[in-house]
Amino acid sequence: MTVAALRVGEVGRLSPLNRLSTFLYLRPRLVLALLLVPPLLWLGIIYLGSLLALLAHSFFYLDDYTAQVIYEPTLSTYAELFSSQANLLIILRSVLMATTVTIISAVIGFPLAYYMACYTSTRTKAFFYIAVMLPLWSNYLVRVYSWKVILAKEGVITWLFNLVGAGPVLDGVLNLPVIGGPSLSVSYIGTCIVFIYIWLPYMILPIEAAMERVPRSLIEASADLGAKPRETFRKVILPLAIPGVAAGSIFTFSLTLGDFIIPGVIGSSRPFIGQVVYAQQGTAGNLPLAAAFAVVPIAVMGVYLAIAKRFGAFDAL
Hints:
- The longest helix has about 35 residues, at about 85-120.
- Helix content is about 75%, strand content about 0%.
- The protein is built from 16 helices and two strands.
- The chain has about 325 residues and is an all-alpha fold.
């Protein structure tokens, strides 16, 4: 009996599951296709398909008399979007808030990430990881509404300011034009504080990961060549940490730009892009205008990602 016949006989005695595994083992390209097709279908149909449908709706318009969407290609919806000063203010307000949150998150998160990467032991670093990610373990809405209570006029922050005799300082801050308000919970200051609290972990972790990849030999070589610690930080560590900052900024900027829950719970009545999209596709029933508004953050993020890529953000993700 030949070897081939013996092998055929052995295969014939295998269970159906073993025969299937043998069949797949001998065809690695088929296995690769079976693994890639489901996620590619999800990405192509569900994600990209919904984006294309959104883009298509932005080229339709709403009939003012019948309140029905007219499915005829036109740029009138975009003309309505960019010709209104109120709409432009909403876009500017959203971009400025996202930029402010990103900058403050980087300023707060960088020292902590630097300390975690360079000065902590393994056990202490694990503690910091848990401390940074601990807020993410609770529900998003619970955290937002908790801050609503904290920032209220009768909340703990106002109480602490009054306790130390700094109540007039807080009142002076709240009296500032545009960013102030009756209390922190109904001001842009409060909105910014909550945004920073919610998204700060997404800034800290990429920066810390980037600093972990800084070769210790470069730091030692800098010291051997006579550089002071401040010079080593400015000329060696900081440039190598920039990709981590850029990567973290992608999360903080994009998440702030599209969020509609935090501005709806905390802040003034002046809306952001996410709130307008929610309102236009819901109560207003103007789906084309909602789609046009939704295209704005996509375009803004396209530009932002191109800039972040130049700083090596994708290498740090």
